[in-house]
Every structure is written in C-alpha cells, then in structure tokens.
Amino acid sequence: MEAMSISDTAAEAARGLGVKAEKPAGGVHLTAWTERGDATARRFFTATALISLVIMTLIMIFLFQEGLGLFKTYSITDFLFTNEWYPTDEANPAYGILALIMGSIMVTLLSSLIAIPLGVGSALYLSAVARPRVREWVKPGIELLASLPSVVLGFVGMIVIAPFMQKVLDIPTGLNILNASFILALMAIPTISSISEDAMYNVPKEWLEASYALGANRWETVWNVWIPGALSGMGTGVVLGMARAMGETMVVLMVAGGAAQIPTSLFQSARPLPATIAAEMGETPVGTEHYFALFAIGIVLFLMTLAFSLLAAYISKRFQMKGSATL
Description:
By secondary structure, the chain is mostly helical. It contains 12 helices and 2 strands, in the order H-H-H-E-E-H-H-H-H-H-H-H-H-H.
C-alpha cells in the first residue's frame, strides 16, 4: 500500500467527518514546478560531474599516449632504475629518473615532517584551546597562507632563507632540500590544518559530553575521544597536504638547487620530478625522445599523486566513525 501525502490524508479525514475538503489553490502547480526544478537540478549536476570525468579521462589519455612513446626506443627499466639524466647528449642520451624520484620523495617526506605536527597542532589549538575571538583571527590567518602564490614563496626561499642558511650553517649553497622542504611545508600547513580542524569540529558533541560526564578532563577527552572521532578527516588532510607537496612545481624549481643527483644530505641540491618538467618542456622539440621522456615523468608523477589520493580515500573510509554506537 502506497503512503498517502499529507493533503490526501487531510482529505480522507474531512470526508470521514462529512466535511467537503478543498485542495489549496495552486497546490498542484506548485508541486509540479518543484518536481521539474528538482529534475533540472539533478540533470545539471549529473552533466557537470560527467563533464569533469570526461575532461579528466581525456587528459589521462593524452598523457599516456605521449609518455608511452618513449618506451618504443628506451627501456622502462633503465628509465625507472638508473640515475643518469642526460637528455641533450647527442651521442648517448640517457633518461634515467631514479635521482629525480629520490629527490621528490626526500623533499616530500621532510616537508611532511615539518607540516604535519604544525598543521595538526594548530587544528588542535583552534578546536580545543583557542577562545572564539582568537579563533576568528587565527584560522583565517592560517588559511591565507594557501592564497600566497608559490612563486612568491619561491622568492622568499631564494632571497631570504637561502643566504641565511648558507651563512649560519656554513654550507656551499642555500638552495637545497632543506630550504625547499621548509617552503613546501608552509604551503601544506593550511590544507592539513583546515581539514583537520573541520573534522574535529564535526565530532558529535554528545561524545564529548559523555566523556566529561564520566569524569575525564579536557586533555583526556581530546586524546581518547576527540582525536579518534576526527581521525578520518585528519588523516585525509595529512595525505592531501603531502600530495600538494609532491606535485608542487615552482617552489622546487626555484629553491631545490636543480642538481639531478641522488642526495645524501639535507644540504645538497636536488631536482624533483615537477621541476624537471617545468625546466625543460619549453625548450624541447615535439616528437623527440626527450619530449616523450618528460611526458613519461608526468605519468610517474600522476601515479604517485594518484596513490596519495587513494590512500586518503582509504583512510577516510577505514577510520570513519558513524554515530555514537561506534565509540
């Protein structure tokens, strides 16, 4: 038996009392208009999602079509597991990207070690410690870091931080892994802090009230209830912040030093994957091995960032808590 609408129920009740019921004027037209509006909105958002999916698919096809052309003439093993990058050598060009991969990994890991404690710590401060008036000023200030252009931060790394490090630490150059990691950490902190703070804000209040009712103090509640309840969102923010550091181009191009070598120290120069693409693509003839090699680097970078995104989705699903019964 189908459920009756409110208007049908009212009409049945009126007939039972012997009263002639009349439907409100324009009710049918209003319902039809609402249904048409809902259908239009559904079609619009469906089309928008499909367009985004199609654009992403076309980009992937183009990337793989151009990048896989390298492996018709060059070994994929030599490409991934050798560290000799000499694409302009006319006699014996080499396209080994192991040094570039190691540079990207080292810069990403070090920047994450700096950004994660600061980002998560600022989220904890804003959620559990800061007064409302302080939070109104501090949170927008942290999020404004995300609006700074990467080239501006690159200039800060080149003009301010690099000479300072070179003088204080007595090292040959200030354009190194540590400098690039510090700047990338500044770029990742807003992502980690904002997502983590939003996740903590969305923890149900009854969970916290139940903890306080059992006699727990503020910090016991934070560590045992608040953080576990927000762990899904916090983990997603951390992984997305690391992906931001992995895919950043301008900062690592300006302050990482640009040396295609496997770094053995934080004070050595490196050349991550995005910096190589940005530095060489503009002067590379279309259709050459060098051209295909740069697109192959793009494939590797795409797969690495995709792995971060899949990891974020897994963490979000794995640690998600639904309802008070999950405590």
